[in-house]
Amino acid sequence: xMKFVVVLAAIVAFVDAAPNSCDTVRCSGGEHCLLQKxxxxxxxxxxxxxxxxxxxxxxxxxxLGQSCVLEPVYCKKAPxxxxxxCMEIPQ
Length: 91
What we know:
91 residues, alpha+beta, signal, TIL domain-containing protein, two-stranded antiparallel ribbon, 1 helix
């Protein structure tokens, strides 16, 4: 019984200490890794790394003092292309 408790504690510690990242994900050409928000049954619900198409051009016309940025989109089925939006330019 003691071995089971030690192993279980080690697994819980590893899961809590190691949230997902894109550090080890290799995507094909034309894609890059983004952390996608997921909904889970029991927190913590860490984002999952997924390969999504690269969109390098932000062409949304923005008002003066704002710049077009690409934001990740959280959707039910990947790949989820980023969304263009206008954000304030820091002074």
